[in-house]
Write a structure and sequence with these properties.
By secondary structure, this protein is of the alpha/beta class. It contains 29 helices and 25 strands. Strand 4, helix 2 and strand 5 form a beta-alpha-beta unit. It is elongated, with a radius of gyration of 39 Å.
């Protein structure tokens, strides 16, 4: 059973093979009996009957259990038979499978002997009449992929027979966090052996198309496969040029730079076309030229000139290279891009009439590939001597299963982060012999995924001694490396410095630290000019960066939101409304944490500064007068319109409960209660924004009357409280009520953190506001309790943000609102997160209020 191929060459017929007898001379072997003998050889993958007219013996061999048979349909000449066999075994030795080797042999026979085959054989009948060779490859029904047998399959090594890697120094570390693998990292690039084999065979097949497409999902590792997996192995027999598409010069410029990597071009190449330059390069080296052009999809996000112009120019260049078979260079062009771009690329190539192969899909790492990545650095003596790494048996399969089962995880980058972190920790614990253990993995797998990695790297960057307080610039810069399609983008140093001219040291102060944190990667342009450039370390980071950027409250992000919203009115020389004082203050505070201002933004800020300088004094005087007059008017109104029955009705409908030394309303003020004040005096309690016909709620029978009132200012909330002999709570009173409530019902309060169960204060109708008297904790039935101190809607206080320890209502510039809204989640349940500043004169649809009993009214 050790024999894989039985090859017969000699005289034969439809029912026999002529063998040599033990004592010399010929002896015919009956085909049926010989088939039975071969059927006992269970290791056979192929029987090759290279004699005359052996086709009639095929079915007997297949019925006897032979998986694949090559046989002839008629008489053949010895020299042609030997030539065909040599071509077939040359293909097999080049690690082609049986089918590919057979097809290559048939193609080579036509190429060497011409299209007419009749003169090569002893019989003019059969397949020759149709211009077909007399050999055919047969596969037994039910023998799954019998013709897919090859030497790598037999050796159980996908890389068997491929050219070895060139002599390269081993990298310092076996894992690279999120950095892409390049040619220098080829010795530690694992997990893609079968893909390397498949793509290598596709590229080097003699009959392959001149343009090959390689594509896959975002972040699947296309660039690493091309640069680290294929490029070093192709270099033995080809001149290989790897380049990423440069926005500065476009696809045509990148291709020209790849063909002419230096300005030194021979005189006889001046002014000639791309095809001639390519062929001249092949002539100089004596090897075919393979050009790998990666990141093709970036032309859509950042086209050179215009998208149509760039595509048309690129297709014209490819037509010049490949449209005429007789003038084609010997090499190949490999185009790498994301899978969703495939339809467009194929259409461009089809419209241009260009030949291409589109079978280059790269799937995500499977279980075997993940195991190979984990165990790869332990797989050879050289790697073992370099890293001395061991992996606990069975752990690689566990890691692979966990990642495969985690449907939402980007498998390859997540694995790289985990392995890099485990390697670093293992090397610190045992420098001489680091070991990746289940304990090490269990300690990391719960919190070391990509979003956590991004957050921790940013936190470490902000906490470094050389870093200033986080002003948002790091996220702004990372977001600059994200495309409109939310994938990784490349930016040159010139582009970065032009975008942040107000931060002249941004390259050394921020770009290099972000590279050292594995969030940006060094990405030289690849067209020979050596320009410095960076790229987001991995496509999988792009949506995480964009989400953090959009949700950031850093000063730079706040300033950018304000400017991008308001500067629209100032574009094109127009003049729009200036910023108010609070927005101008936020913009000026965030200038260092965002990109440079546009011309429209500069005009907006300058006009706002001019206006506020001239009006500052008048506004200050007006504010003092407003405060005095408002106080007098409120006091007078209180004395005149306070009807005892209405006050009692409202007070009874919102009873106060005692918590510690504080008497605070049990419920938030409802729409119906506030409407009663509105009906009594709409000047004191004006209607909420957007509710002009507000009086209809005063009887409490309207559908929404029981909901908490919002869209009113803190001033009007204070008016209401004063109307019923109360006032807004201070920040301290609210926190005391909340903490006392917590202590009585939950227990001790470590680290001032609210420790409710996950369902509490998120609401029975998650994502919506519920009625004020509706309990948020079903099992708290005592009457003497304040409801919804945490959750439902935010609540006004009367405490100034500039002096939180002062008594109530000392400053109208900004006051605290507290308690969280219906959007509250468990991660927010900490008192420091349950407050925010706002102008008391600006209503909000998210902020309501409750009152406390003023000590002077008790």
């Amino acid at each position: 059973d050790r024999i894989a191929i039985f090859h017969f060459a000699g005289h034969a017929g439809s029912d026999r093979l002529l063998l040599e007898a033990a004592g010399g001379g010929g002896q015919a072997a009956d085909a049926t009996g010989f088939a039975a003998f071969l059927a006992q050889q269970h290791g056979l993958a192929l029987v090759f009957l290279n004699g005359c007219s052996t086709r009639d013996q095929v079915q007997g061999l297949l019925d006897a259990g032979v998986a694949a048979v090559i046989a002839t349909s008629q008489a053949i000449r010895d020299d042609v038979a030997a030539e065909f066999a040599c071509q077939f075994y040359t293909g097999l030795a080049a690690n082609r499978d049986l089918r590919a080797a057979f097809d290559e042999a048939a193609g080579a026979l036509r190429a060497m002997r011409g299209s007419s085959l009749r003169d090569l054989f002893d019989d003019d009948a059969g397949d020759l009449a149709f211009g077909k060779p007399p050999w055919a490859l047969y596969e037994r029904a039910g023998a799954d992929a019998a013709t897919g047998w090859s030497l790598p399959v037999a050796a159980n090594d996908p890389l068997f027979g491929l050219p070895p890697l060139p002599l390269l120094d081993l990298p310092k570390d076996p894992f690279r966090y999120l950095a892409p693998y390049g040619r220098a990292d080829a010795p530690v690039f694992f997990g893609r052996s079968r893909d390397i084999r498949r793509q290598y065979d596709r590229i080097t097949a003699p009959d392959s198309d001149p343009i090959l497409l390689l594509f896959g999902q975002s972040g699947v590792g296309k660039s690493s496969l091309l640069d680290a997996g294929l490029r070093p192995r192709l270099e033995r027999d080809y001149v290989v040029v790897y380049a990423r598409r440069s926005q500065a010069i476009g696809l045509v410029g990148t291709l020209q730079a790849a063909l002419q990597p230096s300005p030194a071009v021979r005189d006889d190449e001046q002014g000639v076309g791309l095809a001639a330059v390519w062929q001249a390069a092949e002539a100089r080296s004596g090897k075919p030229l393979i050009v790998i052009l990666d990141q093709l999809e970036e032309l859509e996000a950042r086209p050179f000139k215009t998208l149509a112009v760039e595509i048309e120019g690129f297709m014209n260049s490819l037509r010049e290279l490949f449209v005429q078979p007789a003038n084609r260079p010997r090499g190949r062009l490999i185009l790498g891009f994301r899978a969703e771009f495939l339809f467009k690329v194929k259409k461009w190539l089809d419209d241009a009439g260009l030949p291409y192969n589109d079978k280059g899909i790269l799937e995500p790492l499977d279980r075997d590939g993940l195991v190979e990545v984990v165990e790869g650095p332990t797989s050879t003596p050289a790697l073992q001597r370099k890293y001395a790494l061991t992996v606990t048996p069975g752990l690689s399969a566990r890691i692979a299963n966990d990642l495969i089962n985690d449907a939402g995880s980007p498998v390859a980058p997540t694995l790289q982060v985990l392995l890099s972190e485990m390697w670093q920790r293992a090397a610190r614990v045992h420098p001489a012999q680091p070991c990746i253990t289940p304990e090490l993995y269990s300690g990391l797998q719960r919190n070391r995924y990509l979003d956590a990695f991004l957050g921790e790297q940013l936190d470490a960057l902000h906490a470094s001694p050389s870093s200033r307080a986080d002003d948002g610039l790091a996220l702004d810069l990372l977001n600059f490396h994200v495309t409109d399609q939310v994938t990784a983008a490349q930016r040159t140093r010139a582009e970065i410095e032009a975008r942040y001219p107000h931060r002249p040291a941004i390259w050394s102060d921020l770009v290099l630290p972000l590279r050292n944190s594995y969030l940006l990667a060094d990405s030289r342009l690849g067209h020979g000019d050596g320009a410095e450039a960076t790229r987001l370390a991995h496509d999988a980071l792009a949506p995480l960066v964009r989400e953090r950027f959009n949700n950031s409250t850093a000063p730079g992000r706040q300033a950018r939101r304000i400017l991008e919203n308001r500067a629209k009115d100032w574009e094109g020389g127009n003049v729009g409304p200036p910023l108010d004082a609070s927005d101008l203050k936020r913009v000026e505070a965030g200038v260092r944490g965002m990109r440079a201002w546009t011309a429209a933004e500069q005009r907006l800020v300058q006009a706002s500064r001019t206006r506020h300088r001239s009006q500052r004094r008048e506004r200050a005087l007006a504010l003092v007068a407003l405060i005095v007059l408002t106080g007098i008017a409120l006091w007078a109104l209180w004395q005149v319109v306070r009807p005892t029955y209405l006050r009692g009705q409202v007070a009874n409908a919102s009873p106060a409960v005692r918590i510690d030394a504080i008497e605070i309303d049990r419920n938030e003020v409802s729409i119906a209660l506030y409407a009663k004040c509105y009906s009594a005096n709409s000047q004191r309690c004006p209607a909420p924004i957007g509710n002009e016909d507000f009086g209809r709620y005063s009887d409490g029978e309207e559908e929404y009357g029981g909901l908490p009132v919002t869209n009113i200012t803190a001033v009007h909330a204070q008016n209401f409280c004063a109307w019923i002999g109360r006032r807004l709570p201070t920040l301290a009173e609210w926190e005391t009520s909340t903490l006392q409530f917590e202590a009585e019902h939950i227990g001790p309060i470590p680290d001032r953190r609210i420790t409710y169960e996950p369902s509490i204060n998120i609401g029975p109708d998650a994502g919506t506001v519920w009625p004020v008297a509706k309990r948020s904790v079903d099992d708290l039935q005592e009457n003497n309790r304040a409801l919804n101190l945490i959750g439902n809607v935010w609540e006004w206080t009367c405490t100034s943000t500039e002096d939180s320890a002062a008594s109530c209502w000392t400053d109208y510039k900004a006051v605290w609102f507290v308690g969280g809204g219906h959007e509250l989640r468990r991660k927010d349940l900490k008192l420091e997160n349950l407050r925010g500043p706002a102008s008391p004169f600006e209503p909000s649809e998210y902020i309501g209020f409750r009152c406390v009993l003023d000590s002077s009214k008790r």
